[in-house]
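Dear colleague,

Following up on Tuesday's group meeting, I ran the structure prediction for the three-component complex that the binding team flagged. I've pasted the input sequences exactly as they went in, so you can double-check that nothing got truncated or mislabelled along the way. The structure tokens for the whole assembly follow below. Feel free to forward this to whoever is handling the docking comparison.

Inputs:
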Amino acid sequence: MAIYIVKRFFMMIATILIIATLTFFLMHSIPGSPFDEERTSNPTIQANLEKFYKLDQPTHVQYIHYLKSIATFDFGPSIKKPNDSVNKLLARGFPISLELGMVTILVAVISGITLGTFAALRHNGIIDYAAMAFAVVGISVPNFVLATVLIQQLAVNWNLLPPATWSSPLHMILPTLALATGPTAIIARLTRSSMLEVLTQDYMKMARAKGLSPMRIVLRHALRNALMPVVTIMGTMLAGILTGTFVIEKIFAIPGMGKYFVESINNRDYPVIMGSTVFYSAFLVFMLFLVDIVYGFLDPRIKLHRKEGDA
Amino acid sequence: MESRKFAPIDENQGGTAVAQEPARLRKRNKTFTDVMLSVRDLHVSFKTFGGEVQALRGVSFDLYKGETLAIVGESGCGKSVTANTIMGLIPKPAGRIKNGNVLFKGKDLTKLDKSEMRKVQGVDISMIFQDPMTALNPTLKIGEQLTEGLRTHQKVSKTEARQKAIKLLEVVGIPNPEERMKQYPHQFSGGMRQRIVIAIALICEPELLIADEPTTALDVTIQAQILELFEEIQERTGVSIILITHDLGVVAKIADRIAVMYAGKVIEIGEKREVFYSPQHPYTKGLLASVPRLDLKEEELQPIEGTPPDLFAPPIGCPFTARCPFAMEVCDRIYPATTGLSATHAVDCWLQDERAKKVFGHN
Amino acid sequence: MVSHQQNVQIPDEWFQQKGKDAEKAESVVRPSLSYWKDAWRRLRKNKMAMGGLVFLIILTLFAIFAPILSPHNIETTQYANQNLPPSSTHWFGTDDKGWDVFTRTWHGARVSLFVGVAAALIDFFIGIIYGGISGYKGGRTDTIMMRIIEILYGLPHLLVVILLMVIMGPSLTTIIVALTITGWVGMARIVRGQVLQIKNYEFVTASKSFGAKTPRIIRKNLLPNTMGPIIVQMTLTVPSAIFAEAFLSFIGLGIQAPVASWGVMANDALPVILSGHWWRLFFPAFFISMTMFAFNVLGDGMQDALDPKLRG
């Protein structure tokens, strides 16, 4: 297990390094400097940029310096907002985005697994068809479309829920719904198909032959095995949810990091785009690392590989 | 525990002696009298995309207390379906018992609802599966897989269940059982896993053990060990065994009686020596001729030509007609009635008819 | 065993030996169809997948012909026609520049379909080359190439795409380049797996020395079995590329008017959604969803149809 974790850890570091390097050199590949056109009369910004990128130094010195900044969680200044840096924006926006993301994951995982499990247990029944119809629609409707439809119908036309912002639990319902539907659908589909496969396994037949209660058979024997593939896609799922927060925060005017990020894209605030991308990537890669470790704990075959002991 | 006669190894006077002396020697002249399980005219069908498969088309046989009955036949003949039906493991709604009964100690298992059936599964009747590599849940420790059945069916504490499981692992021949309890299936070899599967089946001291191809997935030396284990267990507990197999070598080793199945029907049944030394059905003869025998080296093996009939639309007559070297017109038209040859030996074949005997002479 | 009474009325001549009938017994086996025919037969039975296929064919035809046939001009702004609701002249209404939403929708369809199909094709080619080399060479080469893939797989794709788009500036080419730079990895993995399978098959066929029959076996058995997953992967790449394009448009990295993608149209319509001009959002959003839906059900259907394990 320790070897496995160490291996994954180095993979994580390598990935973050690649992203940081990619970001750095992409920025430098732009003819001149990305900041040339933005070189305004504002001396504060100029000073910040110089300080962060050491623009007077040769490229390799800049690169090393840049990596050092990243390692100390300094993601650089903003051009458009003189008094802000990526760190300040993160401090303000990221907790809110994280909250949105966490609530979404929770909703998606719980409802997706429940839906997928019931669909598989009632294979070819009404619940199965309904769940799969929902799933294929949920996968096909982009979250920004769903979000606008929800606002239009539930908030504006029927006046049931507040249409925007993130100020109370009631306000959280619509954004969460819009963001969680896609992941819920994906988890439901995956849970169903892997559950269907698990149900045909010999050990399931054996569990039934032991006369165990259906509850125990499903929860203890089937679900744990069926959820393995679900855990493996959690990484990609998290990435989807994270990028999803960008549009959802934009539509619902939620003051999270995603909103600042989209703003920075629209303003071409290059340092903020770079800084947030690196931060988000590092965050995601770290989450992937955690997912891998969880998987290692769930599947005994990973934990003790190499020790195929036998008497 | 109470009425059952399962004796753990350490309490058995001379447990090792029992293991060394082949049980089969002492069993040879045993007679079995108490019917424990009686399968009557069982019809089971499965709905598939291509139509309805009539997997069992009237299967009947009795099983006596303490005996080993082997059900043999080619794959698809319905032997596994028979096992699953007795065990209550026919997948619903695709599979359906259309007719017939399974009487276990006078109780009709086909009439039980799911929760009543669960009180029989693993308690009175246990099952052992073909592939030990897939029969154990890869994510649960074998200790849990051993004890969960016991803990479900009997009011025993965790420690009691554990103790019993450890003893049982010893009985089936797993060294260091206490440590092994904490391990996962992938840490055991195929033969060891099959021993664990057997231990799981025995944990509630069942009266009937159904073994579905228990040695097919194992290599030959392990096969022999597992078969010996079966005999030892039967000797010790008096459990009845239904052995599903296509391997006549296995049958020769441990069966008391043999039922030959073909296309969803039992076509011949009898004591081992009756079926082996005077087979009556052409299919049984073919089956025996297709097995390598050490005593008849020169003779060539004779495979049975052709394939079994399509069970989507089984023939009305004898299903073996198309492959039978002695087929007559009547075979195509009417299914033969059962002819009793002795108190224990019976066959479904038109060749037993007087008129056929005139044509073929006695054979 | 059934124990009905021996029937006494059976005529004696029925008790005559017949010839052995083994061939007849052999012929009972159900007719075997060729792999593709069989897959197509099963795909045709899948109503959802066929619905998706028909929708996509119609969509493609409209995307090709509707902009040519449309009488409406979408080059110059026509403030006289601003924000008209759907009518017999403007079937899907008009937008704030007076452009016909129907015409723009089909221009958008061209963009979205082009992006999706181009991304899938380029993924396919890169994937075939990379996965093919990796799987064919095997050994150390394979290990190194797969390690690279493993790391790339961990990259957050959309973030990298955003970064590339920001640097390169939004255009049709950059979208496709950005999507394929990250997208080929999945395809390469699948191709490698399939190549490894083929290698195994080749070994088997060679050792059985089928001689002249080998090409036939490859064509009849190996190719279909190995192409299946690749085709399914391509089918499912298209909707994810369409989604990615719409997403990028939505966060301000889309191709701009007049020939705008569906994502750009939806993004432009967002500020006015509350003023009641629903048609501006509805049509692009509807077509994005429907197209993704169609590709998804078609991909699923193909997966089921091509999976030999489920053949029954």
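The two ends of chain B are 52 Å apart (CA to CA).

Cheers,
M.
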